[in-house]
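Risk mitigation, structural track. In case the binding assays with magnesium ion fail to produce interpretable data, a predicted complex structure has been prepared as a fallback.
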Amino acid sequence: MPSTHLKQRAANVFQDVCGYPATTFVQAPGRVNLIGEHTDYNDGFVMPCAIDYQAVIACAKRDDGVIRLISVDYDHIQDSFVVNQEIKPTEDKLWANYMRGVVHFLKEKGYSLGGADIAITGNVPLGSGLSSSAALEVVTGQAMKALYELDVTQSDLALIGQASEHNFAGCKCGIMDQMISACGEKGHALLLDCRSLETKSVHIPEGVSIMIVNSNVTHSLVDGAYNALREQCEEASRLLGKVALRDATLAELGASSIKKGSDVYKRAHHVISENERTVACADALIAGDLQKVGEYMYASHASMRDDFEITVPEIDYIVEVLTEALGNKGGARMTGGGFGGCCVALMPTEMVPQVQAAIEAKYQAKTGIKESIYICTPQNGAGVI
Ligand code: ADP
Ligand code: MG
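Fallback model:
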């Protein structure tokens, strides 16, 4: 759905609920990660792009210091709190917690805020690995930035969104999702160094299409599993004597005291090799070498399946069908945190119909679940619309 529809929907609900028109509209996109999975919280590299699915807010200032959140997508349910009092997570409205946390951390960083009416909608599929949660956090920060003309950088909005996800939603995510949602660039992926937050734009060559295949298996238990994986990575870097796995090599892992084939060994093997693949894949994409890009993507998938153990049979099957259809003309892998969600494929645009047909013919027949397919073009990050 184009953002104009989302904007209209948010505007209509805002008017209905608040009884006056919104003054300001902002958006923040979801994202697809082309390569670099579970490397972000290990201080490593990732290469996502922002996509044409977004969170959109219609909003206006209030002069009584109250912030009222209206969920367009959840039956117009509301949440409200006072900006100058202590802001805590709610017990029962998880969606509002992502937003409350953003306001809390903006305040904590010293930004001066007032009240607001805020209607939120979006079309990033929830819990599918396209990061609807980061879009929600970043769009909330963007709304406050626009309303109160805050002198806050896009990177700081990303960090504030991450702090909210850690402390108000309970998921110890890395910084990738918020960074790409805040800083994405039309027509480009971003090679992001998650330690320094330096970015390098990587142009998606003409004639290359990005296909996302949603398995429609959602990752309901992801937060617990995610946090556990993160702990195993921290354990590995401690045993290797490194600040983070980003600083380790496969040779060091092989020579270390970590038992080969143990969970901690396998997790570290994935992260260290994935980091190398991500940097190499960016170079291959810049060189327009789609065959090489494909090799790195296939290898990334195998590593997530065998070493990080975050794929599920439905996801492995999608990648199998994509691999069969694409061969060495493109590449495919699971994308996102894991345990369901989406796969991403890069391919020559003329192959899109045949690849799509292969998935449509096989996935539901094998699994009983109907997939969703999105063809995406890289978009700009968050901003006023
Ligand atoms: P992902 O980020 O992969 O989509 P998460 O589990 O991290 O999955 O985040 C999904 C949660 O984010 C939803 O359950 C909901 O609470 C919240 N959310 C995301 N987008 C919206 C939205 N437009 N309106 C309300 N809540 C949303
Ligand atoms: Mg999320």
